[in-house]
Amino acid sequence: MTAPPQSILSQRPSKALLIGLVVSGVLALLVLAVMLVSGGPVGFGLAALLAVAPLPVLLAAVLSLDRLEPEPKLSLAFAFAWGAGLAIVLGIALTVVGQQLFVRAGFGAAVVDDVGAVVLAPVIEEALKGSALLLLLRRRREIDGLTDGIVYASMAGLGFAAVENVGYYLLAFAEDGAGGAVQLFVVRGLIDPLGHPVYTSMIGVGVAYALTRRTAGRYAAIPLGYLAAVFLHALWNGAATTGSLAWLGLAYLVIMVALVALIAVTVAERRHLVARMGAYLPGYAPTGLVTEADVRMLSTLPGRKQARKWARKAGLGRAMSDYQQAATELTMLHLRAERQGIDPARFAAERDAYLTAMAHARRW
Length: 364
Hints:
The protein is mostly helical. Helices cover about 80% and strands about 0% of the residues. The chain has helices at about 5-10, 15-50, 55-65, 75-85, 85-105, 110-135, 145-190, 195-210, 220-240, 245-280, 290-300, 300-315, 315-340, 345-360. It starts with 5 loop residues before the first helix and ends with a helix.
């Protein structure tokens, strides 16, 4: 039996993606090294521990949004590294330059700090984090819906927040010791750990909408998403500068409303995808690759999980995973054709490749 056509299930990584991942990763390590030298091993160790502690839960939460059609690990790693490395370095540099312009204009230190936090940081940081999604525009097949944009944007936001938090915790440690760092962790790591992912997800929704729709003004969604991201970011930073619990509570409420809206988008898309599986896949019954039982299994997350559990016991775990992924990708192909239109020859080639993958994997 020949090897399964894995290339259709996972695109070969481009050189640009690999270079971006390496450069961003190196920059992130350099930033952390500078923090280690400046803050000392004790302070850096505590700051790094506090910054990393919530990451496993946050990453699991973000990735759980896209369980039906998981994104390529390398692309996800690129988005995270971009936020943690290049976005951090350029964000610091450009914010400092911007603040210096206000200093030269004669503004006082307090005003310059507030402008940096409320204006410059949101405008610059959201542009830099969101640029990771613009770089993924060339890999259009990887963004099939709004959920994909949210996932990639959240990964960039989590990478940025992880490294930024190390710096903030170090500053708190230097001023008030371990107690100060832990107090700040309660706010940044426990109360508002999803700030950056939520902000940048506005851009992710805009980019994904532009890619997956055929409406005349679809590309306007990108700047609108960016403005929404800047607004949320500036709202939180502005509330923090006031020191008012009322303003912080209002900002937090707005961000939570945005988070609930993002979750609602992913749930709606998942339900739509499941419904379309029930519409598209039965048409392939004559091939013998899709039965009525297969459609029922593929159409619910519990059914897919139970099928994988059974397959692992039967020694067919990888085959079942490949079958489910190929069937899901086949459905997404139909959705792309429905939403965006696809050249018939290209549609046929991709369809046949997914069917071949399903044929190779289906051994039950």
